[in-house]
């Protein structure tokens, strides 16, 4: 794994939270993006080599809606940048981690993504991201 690609933060109101993070970070977000497959709308802030990804649910069965219902708004996942996502899945499986989707799916910002179950990673939801070339 090469670097933290982004930190995902679950929010209830994307517009309000984007304004809050703009004040906090001292810069505007660089884009919003709808990811239908995950039932989320995102707002991205660039911070050096990494990003903050705010996530609002767009439907009731979205993982973000469930997370906010069960817990609250807050840090939802950490995403790591990888060079070869399929090779990384094989390596992590052999290490005993629980992969949620062995076939990478389309994420935001031109990435293929795979998630690891938080029960195999000390309670932290981990996302792997590979840039689509
Ligand atoms: C924008 C696209 C993409 C990107 O490009 O960046 C994204 O980031 S999309 C982000 C949203 N998508 C996902 O989160 C997909 C992966 N997540 C899942 O598959 C599920 O959310 C889950 C992790 C398998 C949990 O689903 P489920 O089992 O249905 O939820 P429960 O509410 O029943 O919780 C079970 C268990 O897991 C704990 N949990 C749930 N979410 C998290 C989390 N984000 N971080 C840490 N722990 C989490 C939950 O507390 C339960 O624990 P116990 O109570 O101990 O059983
Ligand atoms: Co993410």
Automatic annotation (TrEMBL):
Keywords from the UniProt entry: Isomerase, Metal-binding
Ranges where the VOC domain occurs: 3-131
InterPro entries referenced in this protein's UniProt entry, alphabetically: Glyas_Bleomycin-R_OHBP_Dase, MeMalonyl-CoA_epimerase, MMCE/EMCE_epimerase, VOC_core
Gene Ontology terms for molecular function: metal ion binding; methylmalonyl-CoA epimerase activity
EC number from the UniProt entry: 5.1.99.1
Annotated SUPFAM superfamilies: Glyoxalase/Bleomycin resistance protein/Dihydroxybiphenyl dioxygenase
Domain of life where this protein originates: Bacteria
UniProt signal peptide: none
GO terms for biological process, alphabetical: L-methylmalonyl-CoA metabolic process
PROSITE patterns on file: VOC (PS51819)
Cross-referenced Gene3D superfamilies: 2,3-Dihydroxybiphenyl 1,2-Dioxygenase, domain 1 (3.10.180.10)
Similarity comment text for this entry: Belongs to the methylmalonyl-CoA epimerase family.
NCBIfam families listed in its UniProt record: metmalonyl_epim
Name the record gives this protein: Methylmalonyl-CoA/ethylmalonyl-CoA epimerase
């Amino acid at each position: 794994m090469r670097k933290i690609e982004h930190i995902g933060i679950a929010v209830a109101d994307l517009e309000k939270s984007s304004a809050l993070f703009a004040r906090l970070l001292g810069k505007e977000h660089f884009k919003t993006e709808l990811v239908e497959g995950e039932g989320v709308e995102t707002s991205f802030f660039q911070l050096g080599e990494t990003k903050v990804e705010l996530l609002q649910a767009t439907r009731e069965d979205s993982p973000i809606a469930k997370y906010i219902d069960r817990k609250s708004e807050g840090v939802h996942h950490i995403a790591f940048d990888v060079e070869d996502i399929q090779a990384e899945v094989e390596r992590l499986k052999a290490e005993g981690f629980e992969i949620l989707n062995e076939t990478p799916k389309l994420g935001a910002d031109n990435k293929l993504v795979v998630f690891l179950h938080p029960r195999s990673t000390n309670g932290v939801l981990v996302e792997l991201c590979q840039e689509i070339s």
